[in-house]
Amino acid sequence: MVNAEIGVIGGSGFYSFLEDVSEVPVETPYGPPSDCLYVGELAGRQVAFLPRHGRSHTVPPHRINYRANLWALRSVGVRQVLGPCAVGGLRAEYGPGTLLVPDQLVDRTKSRAQTFFNGEPLPDGSVPNVVHTTFADPYCPVGRGVALAAARGRDWEPVDGGTMVVIEGPRFSTRAESRWHAAAGWSVVGMTGHPEAVLARELGLCYTSMALVTDLDAGAETGEGVSHTEVLKVFGENVGRLREVLFDAVAALPATESRACLCTHAHDGWDLGIELP
Ligand SMILES: [Zn+2]
What's the pTM? Predict the structure, then answer.
C-alpha cells in the first residue's frame, strides 16, 4: 500500500536523482495522470512527485489531465501540494531567475476541465452535486509562508505575493496581450497554474505555487519576444537551487493532521455527492 503525504507537481529535475524512488501507476475516474507517481522519502517525509508534462515532456499545458493528476495524488494520501512552474515576468524588475510565490490567480484558459463537480457520473455510479468552491485566496497561506522561508534560507530573496495570469497556450502571448496583462497589474504569466490550484482546493488539498521567472514576457521587453531556448536555458540554470528550496519546503510543511489553514474547509456545508479518495 503506497502512502505519501506531500505531493510535488513539476519536472523530472525534482526527483530523478533521489534514491529508492518507486514508480507507482495510478488509475483515476478521470483517466490516467500525466505519468506514474514517483514516491520516495525526503527529509523523513513521504513525497509523491508527478511530472506535470509526463516523463518525456510530451503533454502540452492545455492537454494535461489536471483532474487525474490531483485525484491521483490525493488517492495515495497526499494532502499538501507544491507546484513549481516556469513563468514569464510581466514587470521589468521580475527578470529571469526571479522566484515569485503568488497569492492571486487570474484564469484566462479556454478549454480545460476545471471542476470535479460538473455533473458527470463517476464509474462507480455516484454523481457529484452542484458545488461552489471558496477560492478568494487560491493558495495555501501556510504553504506560501513555508516556501518563502525556504527560499530565504537559501539566500534567494523571493517575491512575496503577486498575481499569476494563466493563459491557454501552448503559444506565448502577443505583445498586446502581454501589455494588457501587465497594465492590469498582474505579475507573471504561466500556462499550468489553472486549473491545478482550483482542483487542489476542490479536493481539500493545500496548494502552493512557486513560480520561477524564465523570461520577460513579450510586453515587458523590447526584443523578439519569448523563445523556448531562452526558457530552457534559464530553467536549467536555476533548477538546482529551486530543487534545494523545494526540498527545504517539503521538510518544513506541517504534518497532515496538524494543518490549521482554511484549505480543508472550502466545502463546509456542502453535500459533495461523491466520495473523495
Ligand atoms: Zn492549506
Answer: 0.95
**What percent of the chain stands above pLDDT 90?**
85
Q: How far is the CA of 5 from the centre of ligand 1 (A)?
A: 13
CB contact at 8 A, 186 and 166:
no
Kindly give the distance from the C-alpha atom of residue 233 to the centroid of ligand 1, in angstroms, as a whole number: 33
- Give me ligand 1 centre to Cα 70, in Å: 15
253-262 pLDDT, tens digit per residue, is 999 999 999 9
The whole-number pLDDT of residue 229 equals 83
Buried b (16+ CB within 10 A) or exposed e, 22-59: eeeebebbbeebbbbbbbbebeebbbbbbbbbeeeeeb
Contact 244, 117 (CB under 8 A): no
Q: Closest Cα to residue 207, out of 266, 140, 120, 112? A: 140
HSE, CB side, 13 Å, CA atoms: give it for residue 79: 17
Could you give the residue numbers annotated as active site? 215, 217
Mean pLDDT, the chain, as a whole number?
Answer: 93
CA atoms lying within 13 Å on the CB side of residue 9? 35
Query: What percent of the chain is modeled with pLDDT above 70?
Result: 97
Torsion sign over Cα 100, 101, 107, 109: positive
